From TrEMBL:
GO terms for biological process: mRNA cis splicing, via spliceosome; spliceosomal snRNP assembly. This is Chloride conductance regulatory protein ICln. GO terms for cellular component: cytosol; pICln-Sm protein complex; spliceosomal complex. Transmembrane segments: none annotated. InterPro entries: ICln/Lot5/Saf5 (IPR039924), PH-like_dom_sf (IPR011993). It comes from the Eukaryota. Pfam families: Voldacs. Keywords: Cytoplasm, Nucleus. The keyword Nucleus applies. It is found in: Cytoplasm; Nucleus.
Length: 231
């Protein structure tokens, strides 16, 4: 398993991250004035986001020379989130493999005495200054997931993809594991792009939009029962 979220301080002379050119790492995308939110914490002050063929790197503007990075091999799931009831700002939502795979790994356990414990952060949100760029960033994530397939993935390519019947109460299902939003929100409607996962081929072409509205279906069922009783 690739290490999860890590501190990043390997800064080049131009202020950007120093890439591992020997292994063929290349820079694919840069987004300025991008914020990140770890777990349930408030977003960090805006910094610069760098997406390479191997990892996602975010460098702080307020703490020069400091940042965080996560390998694509450790990103188990990513999506575009635009529902304000799920999260106040449109963002790229990601889930990260951690040392602690318990249900509460993405919650308050990621902090100890107010300090962020990076090895326990299982959720990261990326908030861009221009929300209109989220789809383009999502496409880059899908491309990088294809470049970094999970070496332990099985042969079932459908494992880990969403289908409507697997989504309930605003929660997210990933493979055989129930993954719910770290905010604990129970939104009536959650709207998002279909999630990309490492090890699944042709991710970009498989993106769909899902809309879940439990209340709508409940009202329709009640109306149907009323009509039957009326007859």
């Amino acid at each position: 398993m690739a290490p999860g979220l890590q501190r990043f301080t390997d800064i080049a002379g131009d202020g950007g991250p120093r890439l591992d050119a020997a292994s063929g790492e290349e820079l694919l995308r840069v987004d300025h004035a991008a914020s990140v939110a770890f777990g349930r914490r408030a977003p960090e002050p805006p910094g610069t986001l760098f997406v390479t063929t191997r990892r996602v790197i975010w460098l702080s503007e307020t703490e020069k020379g400091q940042g965080n990075a996560v390998d694509f091999l450790a990103i188990t799931l990513h999506a575009v989130s635009r529902d304000p009831e799920a999260y106040p700002s449109p963002c790229i939502y990601t889930q990260i493999d951690t040392e602690d795979c318990s249900e509460e790994a993405g919650g308050s356990d990621s902090e100890a005495n107010g300090e962020l414990q990076l090895t326990k952060v299982s959720e990261m949100r990326i908030i861009l200054s221009d929300p209109g760029q989220l789809d383009a960033l999502f496409d880059v994530f899908c491309h990088c997931a294809e470049l970094n397939p999970d070496p332990n993935a099985g042969g079932n390519e459908e494992n880990g993809w969403f289908s409507g019947e697997n989504m309930a109460g605003g929660g997210w299902i990933h493979g055989d594991e129930d993954m719910t939003d770290g905010n604990g929100l129970e939104a009536d409607m959650f709207f998002m792009n279909l999630i990309g996962q490492n090890g699944v081929h042709d991710l970009g072409r498989s993106v769909r939009e899902l809309q879940i509205d439990d209340q709508r279906f409940e009202d329709a069922e009640e109306e149907h029962e009323t009509r039957e009783n009326g007859h």
